[in-house]
Design brief:
Layout lengths: L2 E2 L1 H6 E11 L3 H8 L9 E5 L2 E5 L20 E4 L2 H12 L3 E11 L2 E11 L2 H25 L1
Length: 147
């Protein structure tokens, strides 16, 4: 795991998840191998039949010199045409967004986990937090009883 967007699971209802490849330059891959990237403010978009990752920050690789990349450039996502079409239709719906959840290596390839999400209301966030706290309390009670 190189970068994750933990806040996304808190702020959004996840409707559907996808795994996409990323088109990167050499200096970006080296920077990712060093474990440096941020996708907290990133989002994805479908334009002209192609999916793009916008706002992801991959810092410059210090030893790449003049062949370095722009840290927040738009990066192309590799998905099947049918998936892109399906995502495009879903994003046109009101309130549905495509958000990156994580960037990671799968073998030698760089992958991005994407999700179609719908924003949570404040009371939904409170309910999620309450459920998480209840599960934690149940685990503690079981641990005390068996221990």
């Amino acid at each position: 795991m190189v970068a994750s967007n933990r806040r996304a699971r808190h702020d959004y209802h996840i409707l559907e998840e996808y795994e996409a490849g990323l088109v990167l330059t050499g200096s970006e891959v080296k920077s990712l191998r060093a474990g440096k990237a941020s996708i907290v403010e990133a989002y994805a978009m479908v334009k002209g039949g192609q999916a793009e990752l916008i706002g992801a920050h991959v810092p410059e690789y210090p030893w790449a010199h003049h062949r370095n990349h722009e840290p927040t450039r738009t990066r192309r996502l590799l998905l099947h045409a049918k998936q892109i079409e399906k995502i495009g239709k879903a994003v046109r719906e009101k309130g549905v967004t495509l958000v990156p959840l994580a960037i990671y290596f799968k073998g030698h390839l760089v992958k991005c986990s994407l999700a179609l999400v719908k924003g949570k209301k404040i009371h939904d966030k409170r309910q999620t937090e309450r459920e998480r706290e209840d599960r934690r309390e149940m685990r503690r009670a079981v641990g005390r009883r068996t221990g």
